[in-house]
Write a structure and sequence with these properties.
The protein is mostly helical. It has a single domain, classed as Orthogonal Bundle (Hypothetical protein af1432), CATH 1.10.3210.10. It contains nine helices and no strands. It is globular.
């Protein structure tokens, strides 16, 4: 899978919003690592990596429409934008459907339905813990309530929960 065309398209879409570009690239790196560490089948790995690159694509429109980048707005606005971009780049319809589902649910943690979804949520949290300055108590809570994969737990522990 070649990600360069999608990364370039996302960078152009974000119009100089370097913080958001850095965020999705970091989430992509962690998602790739978690997926490979968990041995995801190639088809799920491709979905995961694609979703990681576009998971926050709804922020720009959410800020314009609602003056907020809150999770529910991202989940509402992101899928249509991602579908258009992925279709334009020639992504398979089934992959695009799953990626759009993941975008529409990546801030919803009570019904995670697959390893691609779990890995995406964990990767996003790894970045958000740092970017949001969550601190050790927050990281411990997230560890208890969200993280399930062996690879994600190892990353969380080594980055945020070492004594």
């Amino acid at each position: 899978m070649k990600t360069a065309p999608l990364i370039l398209k996302m960078c152009a879409y974000e119009e100089g919003e370097v913080k958001r570009v850095n965020h999705f690239l970091k989430v992509y790196g962690f998602a790739k690592t978690i997926g490979e560490g968990e041995g995801l089948p190639q088809s799920q790995q491709e979905i995961l990596e694609t979703a990681a690159l576009v998971h926050d694509i709804g922020i720009k429109v959410s800020l314009q429409k609602y003056g907020s980048s809150a999770g529910p707005y991202q989940e509402k606005e992101g899928p249509a934008i991602a579908r258009e971009m992925l279709t334009e780049l020639g992504y398979d319809e089934a992959l695009t459907d799953r990626v759009c589902f993941l975008i529409a649910h990546h801030h919803t943690y009570d019904n995670i339905d697959g390893p691609d979804y779990q890995a995406l949520v964990e990767a996003d949290f790894l970045v958000n813990i740092f970017e949001g300055g969550m601190g050790r108590p927050g990281a411990e809570k997230v560890r208890k309530n969200i993280f399930k994969t062996k690879t994600g737990l190892a990353l969380l522990d080594s980055l945020f929960l070492r004594d």
